[in-house]
Amino acid sequence: MRVSDILNCTGSSCTDVNHAVRIIPSVDLTPKAVKVIVISEAAPPEPRDYYYASDNSLFAQTTVQAFSDAGVAVKSITELMDMGFYFTTAVKCGKTGYGIETATIKECSLLLEKELSLFPDVRVCMLMGDVAIRAVNYIAGRAGLGRVIPAGSTYKIRGGEFYFGKIRAFPSYLQAGPSFFIEKSKRRMIAEDIAAAVKLL
Hints:
Layout: H1 3-6, E1 17-22, E2 36-43, H2 58-69, H3 77-82, E3 85-95, H4 102-116, E4 124-128, H5 130-142, H6 154-157, E5 162-164, E6 167-172, H7 184-198
Parallel strand pairs: 2-3, 2-4, 4-6
Antiparallel strand pairs: 1-3, 5-6
């Protein structure tokens, strides 16, 4: 299965993203093999930096480093996929500014909801950053489940036990992109969160 063959976003109402850079994962997957979904913020400004573009892409490099920091000895996104990990973004288009507007996150969460429904055996959902957390909270709200992740600073709430239906949800920080190398304290917390999630596999 290729997610890009199933999902299609033709919307253009989001004003704070670059619609010319809309990336829906096109990698071949076996849906039942996916056990962990890692959701980061938005597509990178350049498609060559996306998770599945190449082993040398920015998102791939920082993500592999984050897993290595957590004690998971891998060298590529492909190896992580073989372990049952799937990587995607809450917002499929590249952002044009620092933040992403609430209306955009809500709109994109509709597509993310359809994407998540494609994977029946997911045990863990890693929410890498505020945009991913908010998107999943919108999905849960529409399903009548209430907030998956409570309001509050990530550093205060991470480490708690949260569930999205039967799926364990881990709020963490963004591991995809250049910011990963900047803040060492967040990098340490990302590694701790990944290590905790891996223990559930």
